[in-house]
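HOLO CASE FILE
Compound: zinc ion
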Amino acid sequence: MKIETLVKKAQAAMNQKGATLTVDGKWGPKSETAAAHFEFKVEAILDNLVIPEEVSKTNEPILGITEPIFVTVKGSKFKDRGNYETPSGKFKGLTVHYTVSGRSAAAAENMVRFLESKGYGCMVMDENGIIYIPENFDVFKTWGYHSGVSEWKGITGVSDHFAGMEICCWGIGSGVGPFRDVTTAQGYIIAGKYQQYTAAQEKALINFILWAKTKNPEFDLDYVAGHDELRKEAQELGDKQDPGGSLSTTMPAFRQLLKTKAKALGI
Ligand SMILES: [Zn+2]
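Model generated. Tokens follow.
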């Protein structure tokens, strides 16, 4: 589906909730303002999965898969580093990050530009689960640096094998809630007070992963990892803390959830 079509769908959905946008597929200031007051929900088909209680609240409306909403940040281009270093040229894994920033649409767009200015590159998700990318960015094939020192199942410096999802959030030590307090370090998770990802972000993350799995056979759900996990595996525990307590569950439980859902959906 084209980006314009996705934007049109989003604009139409917002109009149904009282916005008065021209449905033209162009993401202008009016659409952005409307989006700040609108929670994008993922359409659902019923299933009978038993979800671990810890993540059930984030999981409830996600019962199927929909096309993620991508917004291109005009005028922004990541350095061209070619395709992922995998047999298909598509990503094998995904690193879950947080940005240490605000999470409005404008903050997400600014983060794309910031990554560009630093020579980094990955997707950025705002508080409503909308994913921002630069121009000429193939989400399956275009790799950029985002994980630094990292290791996962024998792959070191995973950025050329793993896509990155920067989820807008202040993370550990945030002055802005809602908070999740991790009082005791748990494995790779550093103790501290974290700003939580929004429910819309967690739903959109799960949806993106399952959607990507249907489009990319190279993608292995056992290679969905937290930046904190990747640092620990590279003998740098604590050097990065995302997602830590910002995610409502641990990464091993999150992977299990993804695999259970993928199996039930036949993907
Ligand atoms: Zn990170």
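CASE NOTES: The pocket of zinc ion is lined by residues 97, 227, 240, 242 (CB under 6 Å). The chain has one domain: 68-265.
CLOSED: yes
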